Amino acid sequence: MRKVVFVLLLLSMLAPAALTQKKGERDAALRSLADAERAFASLSVAQGIKASFVANLADDGILFRPGPVAGKKWMEDRPAPKGLLTWRPAFVDVARADDMGYTTGPWEFRKESPQDKPVGYGHFVTVWKRQADGKWKVAVDLGISHPEPPAALSNPEVVSPADTWAKKLPKTEAEAERAALLKVESEFSKSAAAKKSTDALLAHFADDVRLYRPDNFPAVGREAARALLALKPGSVTLQAAKSEVSRSGDVGYSYGAYEFKAADGKTSEAGNYLRIWKKQSDGKWKVVLDLWDPIPPPSS
């Protein structure tokens, strides 16, 4: 009996240390992904756009030119683009399995040197996956353009969502979660295509959702997303191309093509979308980031 009491006492003493270790693991994972993004951006300044993307894209990493292509090969087969592309992470999140994560933040484009005034502004979203050697590589990269942002958006502090690693989620299998994600992705698509209230679409969004639309600054939070959606009422048809889920079954993404129709029924925009999902504490999948990037119409 005394032995049992001693073991229980020992476990109670070790519990805070275990929780601290969990937080330390999360902090280390977030830091490693932010560092990978910064190294990617630094290489772009030091060696140029092509070299930085070739070095950081996974072999099966996707870029959109204008549709989804094998990004690394696409870059290798073409001359290095001119100009200077700079960016910095503003938000970072990592799956519990530390195998998948995403980063987002502002980018700027200059014609030649860092001293030049930017001629283009926007926000990027990058999905990362750990490789067999433990290194982070880019799985998907997409972004939007918008006007020159205020200082708070152009020079952000790096943040991450609230720590959910210490919370227990139901045990899952990646393939089962991928099927579950495909189901909610389909439900989302139906809501987006139907001319229902904005609330029907917002029901799929997490409280801290990030909504990215061309020519607009990112909207953060459900109410900001509501306001941004109200600027362009209509319906959208979505055609998913790929979806993937982390081994821990708590972070996933999908990308594909969209066609937006304004409220008058006329097609006004078509392009690529990237959507990031995260399982919430109640076990439900919710959208934490939704991005549309239009494809310019062919010149006549």
List the helices and strands and how they pair.
Blueprint: H1 2-47, H2 49-56, E1 57-64, E2 68-70, H3 71-76, E3 84-87, E4 91-94, E5 100-110, E6 120-130, E7 136-145, H4 151-154, H5 174-193, H6 198-202, E8 205-212, E9 219-220, H7 222-230, E10 234-245, E11 251-262, E12 267-279, E13 285-294
Parallel strand pairs: 1-7, 8-13
Antiparallel strand pairs: 1-2, 3-5, 4-5, 5-6, 6-7, 8-9, 10-11, 11-12, 12-13
Helix pairs in contact: 1-2
Structure write-up:
The protein has 300 residues and is of the alpha+beta class. The chain is built from seven helices and 13 strands. It has helices at 2-47, 49-56, 71-76, 151-154, 174-193, 198-202, 222-230, and strands spanning 57-64, 68-70, 84-87, 91-94, 100-110, 120-130, 136-145, 205-212, 219-220, 234-245, 251-262, 267-279, 285-294. Strands 1, 2, 3, 4, 5, 6 and 7 form a seven-stranded mixed β-sheet that branches. Strands 9-8-13-12-11-10 form a six-stranded mixed β-sheet, covered by helices on one side. A hairpin with a 4-residue loop joins strand 11 (251-262) and strand 12. The longest helix is centred in the first third of the chain and has 46 residues, at 2-47.
Instruction: Figure out the total of helices.
Output: 7
Strand tally, please? 13
Q: What Rg is obtained from the alpha carbons, in whole angstroms? A: 21 Å
Q: Give the helix/strand class.
A: alpha+beta
What order do the helices and strands follow? HHEEHEEEEEHHHEEHEEEE
**Biggest sheet, open or closed, and with what strands and sense?**
7 strands, mixed
- Please state the average pLDDT score: 87
Portion of residues in beta strands equals: 35-45%
User: CA-to-CA gap between the ends?
Assistant: 86 Å
* Share of residues in helices: 25-40%
As residue ranges, the low-confidence spans are: 1-21
Global outline: globular
